[in-house]
């Protein structure tokens, strides 16, 4: 079953912090309709090692459409991410070989990388952040986006219920002061990049 409520959040990022038993870097995001959060996995919850890529000067697919969206939570119609299938100018948006392995307990940690990216957006007066993932609203009234990572290719016995196509997570920052994009992609070693039309791994 695919992840629920696949969505895109656009807004003005604020200083975040690491939180939770399974650490996430939580980024508050201001929008005209209120403040949301982006919860980015900075460690794996199942013991598999994290793969990540932080790519400066790398525009996302459909960058112009992203800039034209209103802030807040949007349906990602026509701009959904798929690590296996999405291309930019005829080349893959991201490949496994372009990602760096983050050893468990590694230093610097992934949250250090995310902090650096978010801080660049904060320093730019009109910096924007875009997060693709699963929209949630918890019992405390907190709303936001999580599953900011690849959401396909999971083994059947480990998050296999999240598998699907055109529903991968990702983080993009736009810095108007320098007309620069920064792209952030996250996956896990346990995930396959050879998937069928339901996002399940092909043996």
Q: Which tags fit this structure?
A:
single chain; two-stranded antiparallel ribbon; mainly beta; 5-stranded mixed beta barrel
Quickly describe the structure.
With 203 residues, the chain is mainly beta. It is 10% helix and 36% strand. A 5-stranded mixed β-barrel has the order 1-3-4-11-10.
The major sheet is characterized as:
5 strands, mixed, barrel
Strand content: 35-45%
Order of helices and strands: EEEEEHEEEEHEEEE
Strand order in space, largest sheet: 1-3-4-11-10
Helical proportion? Answer: under 10%
As for the number of domains, it is: 1
Q: If helices are DSSP runs of H or I spanning 4 or more residues, what is the number of helices?
A: 2
The parts where pLDDT drops under 50 for at least 5 residues are: none
Q: Which structural class do the helices and strands define? A: mainly beta
Q: Report how far the terminal alpha carbons are from each other.
A: 19 Å
**Count of DSSP E strands?**
13
- What's the average pLDDT? 90
Descriptive account of the structure:
By secondary structure, the protein is mainly beta. It has one domain. Helix content is 10%, strand content 36%. The protein contains 2 helices and 13 strands. The chain has a 5-stranded mixed β-barrel with strand order 1-3-4-11-10. Strands 7-8 form a two-stranded antiparallel ribbon. Strand 10 and strand 11 form a beta hairpin. It is globular, with a radius of gyration of 16 Å. The two termini are 19 Å apart. The mean pLDDT is 90.
Summarize the topology:
Layout: E1 6-13, E2 17-19, E3 24-31, E4 34-41, E5 50-56, H1 63-68, E6 72-74, E7 87-88, E8 91-92, E9 100-102, H2 110-123, E10 128-137, E11 143-146, E12 170-175, E13 180-188
Parallel strand pairs: 4-11
Antiparallel strand pairs: 1-3, 1-6, 1-10, 2-3, 3-4, 5-9, 5-13, 7-8, 10-11, 10-12, 12-13
């Amino acid at each position: 079953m695919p992840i629920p409520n696949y969505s895109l959040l656009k807004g003005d990022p604020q200083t975040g912090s690491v939180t939770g038993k399974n650490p996430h870097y939580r980024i508050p995001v201001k929008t005209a309709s209120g403040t949301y959060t982006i919860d980015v996995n900075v460690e794996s919850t199942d013991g598999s090692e994290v793969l990540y890529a932080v790519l400066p000067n790398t525009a996302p697919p459909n960058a112009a459409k992203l800039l034209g969206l209103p802030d807040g939570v949007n349906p990602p119609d026509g701009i959904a991410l798929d690590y296996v299938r999405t291309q930019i100018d005829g080349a893959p948006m991201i490949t496994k070989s372009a990602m760096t392995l983050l050893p468990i307990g590694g230093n610097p940690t992934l949250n250090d990388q995310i902090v650096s990216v978010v801080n660049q957006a904060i320093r730019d007066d009109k910096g924007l952040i875009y997060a693709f993932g699963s929209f949630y609203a918890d019992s405390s009234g907190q709303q936001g986006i999580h599953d900011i990572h690849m959401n396909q290719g999971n083994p059947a016995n480990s998050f296999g219920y999240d598998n699907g196509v055109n529903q991968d997570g990702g983080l993009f920052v736009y810095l108007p002061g320098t007309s620069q994009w920064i792209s952030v992609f996250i996956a896990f070693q346990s995930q396959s990049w050879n998937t069928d039309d339901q996002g399940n791994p092909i043996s």
